[in-house]
Amino acid sequence: MGDTLYLECTAGISGDMTVAALLDLGADQDVLMKALNSIPVKGFSIEIGRVKKAGIDCCDFRVILDENHENHDHDMEYLHGHHQEHHHGEEAQTAHYHHGEELQTSHHHHHKEGQQEEQGENSLRAHEHTHAHTHPHEHRGIQEIKHILTQCNMTKNAGNLAERIFHILAEAEAKAHNVPIDQVHFHEVGAIDSIVDIVAVAVCLDNLKIDQVIVPKLCEGTGTVRCQHGVLPVPVPAVANILKTHALKVEIMNVQGEFVTPTGAAIVAAIRTGDKLPKEFSIKEMGIGAGKRNYERPSMLRAMLIEADSQEKDTIYKLESNVDDCTGEALGYVMERLFEAGARDVHYMPVFMKKNRPAWQLNVICKKEDIQKLEQIIFQETTTIGIRRMEMERTVLERELETVQTPYGQAVVKKCRIGEQTKLYPEYDSVAAICGQSGLSFQEAYQMIVEQCRES
Question: Which CATH class is domain 312-386?
Answer without folding.
Answer: alpha beta
